[in-house]
Amino acid sequence: MIRALNTAATGMASQDANVSTIANNIANVNTNAFKASRAEFDDLLYETVQEAGAKSSPDTSYSVGTQIGSGSKVSAIKKQFSQGLPNITNNPYDLMVNGEGFFGVVGMDGNVSFTRDGSFTVDSTGALVTKSGEKLFPGFTIPQKTHHVNIDAAGGIEAFIDGQTEPVKLGQIPLFQFQNPEGLKSLGGNKYHATIGSGVATQSIAATNGSGQIQQGAIELSNVNVMQEMTNLIKAQRAYEMNSKVMSAADQMLQVVNNVK
């Protein structure tokens, strides 16, 4: 009975983490470019009571072993990097990656982090920045008296300035790719850092080397499927309830044993 109590407790802990993951997904259903997470589980160690293939008699052996499990654990909470739907805003500084790739943004400490959220704006100095003030890598400044900005699918930026007939080329927005994007570290604020698990960032021009195209005037929506999350929530809740019933049954059995005189 003690084993059953411990095993059921691991199941409840696993489902608690599962519900927390689902709750975070639902909470961010309207977060720009948010990527839903999925909890994954592993079974824990087994006690081998009887090894398969062991002798059952001088002339025979067991075809099936006897192993008793000790529960489950959360082995990973994995980001799902499927693309979200586009939200057409017609704002010239709203950018969306159609396909694979991340924008690079430069933090106040000079380090580059990565994001799919392309809701950029222009600060008081004309720099193209995120909502929190981090500059779009490698750095772009919109000239004064610019009346229109054009960003093509490859990330090339042109500014049309009052009094000039030809646009001014401001540079090209690069995209970054990773061998294993699921290995990125989430920082909050729609940003990620590279890790050993993700591999180093590979910089490329949009629409080349397998990277996506840049769409101006649109923002990527969250890829959270609310119906799927609600289904997963019901399943997690039922699994938690069943583990709690196992714990209750084991407690009652243990109480019976303790009351034997």
In short:
The chain has 2 helices and 20 strands. With 261 residues, the chain is α+β, with helices and mostly antiparallel strands.
Could you characterize the architecture of this molecule?
The chain has 261 residues and is of the alpha+beta class. The protein folds into 2 domains: 2-81 and 224-258, no CATH class; 86-220, no CATH class. The protein is built from 2 helices and 20 strands. The protein has a 5-stranded antiparallel β-sheet, with no helix packed on it. Strands 12-13-14 form a 3-stranded antiparallel β-sheet, with no helix packed on it. A two-stranded antiparallel sheet has the order 1-4. Helix 1 packs antiparallel against helix 2. The longest helix is centred in the last third of the chain and has 33 residues, at 226-258. The radius of gyration is 27 Å and the shape is elongated. The two termini are 18 Å apart. The mean pLDDT is 94.
- Structural class of the helix and strand makeup? alpha+beta
Point out poorly predicted stretches.
Answer: none
Strand content: 25-35%
Largest sheet: 5 strands, antiparallel
Estimated helix fraction: 10-25%
Taking all Cα atoms into account, the compactness measure Rg is 27 Å
Query: Could you state the order of secondary-structure elements as H and E?
Result: HEEEEEEEEEEEEEEEEEEEEH
Tell the overall outline.
elongated
Rounded mean pLDDT score: 94
Strand order of the biggest β-sheet: 11-7-8-17-16
Number of domains: 2
Number-wise, the strands total: 20
